[in-house]
Amino acid sequence: MSKDYLPISREDMNNRGWEQCDFVYVIGDAYVDHPSFGPAIISRVLESNGYKVGIIAQPDWKDENSIQILGTPRLGFLVCGGNMDTMVNHYSVAKKRRATDAYSPGGQIGLRPDRATIVYCNLIRKVYKDAPIIIGGIESSLRRLAHYDYWSDKVRRSILLDSQADVLSYGMGEHSIVELADALNSGIAIKDITFISGTVYKTRDLSSVYEPVMLPSYEDILRDKEVFARSFYTQYVNTDPFTAKCLVEGYESGDYVVQNVPAKPLSQSEMDRVYALPYMRDYHPSYEEQGGIPAIEELKFSLTSNRGCFGGCNFCALTFHQGRMIQTRSHESIVSEATLLTWDPEFKGYINDVGGPTANFRHTSCEKQNTKGVCLNKQCLFPKPCSNLKVDHTDYLSLLKKLRELPKVKKVFIRSGIRFDYLIEDKDDTFMKELCENHVSGQLKVAPEHISDAVLSMMGKPENSVYEKFITRYKKTNETLGKKQFVVPYLMSSHPGSTMKEAVALAEYLRDIGYMPEQVQDFYPTPSTVSTCMYYTGIDPRTMKPVYVPKSPHEKAMQRALIQYRNPKNYNLVVEALTLANRTDLIGYDKKCLIRPNYMDKDKFGSRPSESGKNSVRKGGARGASNSGDGREKNGSSKGNKGSRGGFGSKAGRSAQSSELNRFEGRKTENKKYGKTIRNTHKKK
């Protein structure tokens, strides 16, 4: 293998002496050859197995010639919509078009179509009618079976049918893509490749499917939301590679979509090999004149240490995409990559992150998972930590110490998220002390999401008392160290289960701790999460009981405004929300009030003789509250699809998607009170 970018033109192919590519990889993002980007991993894995891969990045979907620049591939096309789901990339939760795209040159929007995977595949099928097409990445993985689509507000078919692709690779795709390539290379027709774990295919004959679990048909789930919820939960409990069954979904046309069992997780040695491949670790130089690719900025000096998450948050798609089993790289592999970073001319001494979907998970939650998989109907941390949970930060501490001691390294930050409910179960204070002393940049971002236990239960998160216990311990540790460091809590509005009562309670909590977030995440119903199933059906698929869902844009706006009640722009929404919740006692001059009465309402709420009453916001103004929009999804990029690292075209950055999907877009909650986030800007010479 030569140390160079993969071919993006005929000229590049000629320089390598290629007459034909084995695979042409069509992606919705600009071409970035870095192990934090799924397409880079998949293309390099194929290359390491002897296959010639060419890249067509962001082709013009209105021009058939754009898909033909590398000619006909010998084995087939690979298609990925991008590191982020294209609909999340293009639209806010309010369904408004975004202004930038961090995965495009110069952050330019509009260089890829909506539902890019479907559009690209149909373009390929129009030109190359018989060429095998394999789809993957976050967009395909989470739409592998019939799913609720928030943007059209309806249930859509499997993306395999709408795209006209032959096979879908879901989850982390290193195993499945090599097996698919080897099968095609051996001469097996694409329609006969039905036996590979981690793939989905379509057929009209189920005679060769071994012990399938028949899901309700597409037509049945369209007619009945309860049927949809039951079907979804069947899928949810069949995501573990050790216990899952083959799932089959039928369609009126006579087609069946068959989901094979998930691929086995990578071993540590396999993970090490993946991250040791000859990545260029940057965007293709052809983007230089256009301003580069913004998404690389935060990720260039970050390190992936693990995959998977046994946290099990209901709004997160990690269970469907990466799975609940933790996969890790060895210390030697991570230290080797870190050493490589220190020789980069742009390295300033700061490693931005060492982690994954959850930074402090470095082993499976219990020993039995290594042979028997995860529990089907039981979570490791929710509602209480499992008695078999293994809580140990020793390995992570050892890794961080090795990284800190590297020459040229000034500071090693942890930004991909600390699971506080796991940390608080560790009776040894060493990790908390090391975290506060060496790995926090003035503020630690954690995700309590809410303070109402009723809402937290719907989220699959621990009770608020667990978060309060963590805060107490964190403050005490910092006081002992003589440090003034803060916690920045990630908060979510309008999640299923959140009534106006719970939204007001959250506002009161923020008042009491004296914190006002600049950005707020309004719940985003993205495909294949428990919370999205609740949003669509009004049913908790775990219990099949009804759940309250705030759906109207106006109610969602009120709930979001309550979290940012100090923002003058939100005044009318806050008044309306408090009135609806019968909490007008929070409008007035008492220190417990959220807002002052408008001078027009002084007769209703009272007035002070010494004040004109014209100031509608409590003293302190709108400190830290500059965005009343969609909050944490404002920033498009770099740490988004948290938890989609390394999959077939999946965002290998921090998601999403997120991911976890609701973390697709790096939630940079920067508040003057809490200091500024250190951020290394990627500058080109």
TrEMBL record:
Residues 295-566 form the Radical SAM core domain. GO terms for molecular function: 4 iron, 4 sulfur cluster binding; catalytic activity; iron ion binding. Keywords: 4Fe-4S, Iron, Iron-sulfur, Metal-binding, S-adenosyl-L-methionine. Binds 1 [4Fe-4S] cluster. The cluster is coordinated with 3 cysteines and an exchangeable S-adenosyl-L-methionine. It comes from the Bacteria. Signal peptide: none annotated. [4Fe-4S] cluster binds at residues 309, 313, 316. InterPro entries: Elp3/MiaA/NifB-like_rSAM (IPR006638), rSAM (IPR007197), rSAM_horseshoe (IPR023404), rSAM_sf (IPR058240), UPF0313 (IPR022946), UPF0313_C (IPR024560), UPF0313_N (IPR013704). Its cofactor is [4Fe-4S] cluster. Residues 600-685 are annotated as: Disordered. Residues 662-673 have a biased composition (Basic and acidic residues). Residues 674-685 have a biased composition (Basic residues). It holds the Pfam family DUF3362. Belongs to the UPF0313 family. HAMAP family: UPF0313. This is Radical SAM domain protein. It comes from Lachnoclostridium phytofermentans (strain ATCC 700394 / DSM 18823 / ISDg).
